[in-house]
């Protein structure tokens, strides 16, 4: 079972003293060759403050992100599940979990990074800034990542639960098959009408993945996942073809 999450633009500072980025230690080694030119382009871009600010869409107050990118190969690392912050990752609250649910996250959660491609939750990375819509000279991210990420996901023959935003899903589509589904978070009005959530869908996703981690269960298919959700009072149901709806 793979649970795919989007990254967050906000990240926690710091990391383990003496650690630094080791590309060879990251999961999905088939993506190593694709990671190198993106990493090189980010470091090159960070040499020019004005160009980097424009390419990364940064305000003057966010220029510390460029310093992060300059030091990306030397700065300390921490697990992916702890590095990202923001609404989704606050809902997940991985730093508050005990060893067993953190191990579940490390085994089953994959975060889709614009810089590194697919990362398991236990992979160790530095703080950085690069988004799906960042502009790298001569290296369009969608064209660069799409086929290699799609191939890596296709190679997984178990259940894939895609919680990525549509913008990240476009950087590497999940396979179209029975045990690969996209999760939409919706709310239900007094009249029973359902509508998609924007900001608050992130919190729902984070809390849902936290519940999965705390359960410690492995789901081989969608019926198993739906049955588990029903026993926990989680409103998860089939939606449009190839999709599940989580009502919060």
TrEMBL record:
A biological process term (GO) from this entry: response to hydroperoxide
Gene Ontology cellular component list: cytosol
Superkingdom of the organism of origin: Bacteria
InterPro entries, per the entry: YaaA
Pfam family of the protein (one): H2O2_YaaD
Stated name of the protein: Peroxide stress protein YaaA
Organism, scientific name: Glaciihabitans arcticus
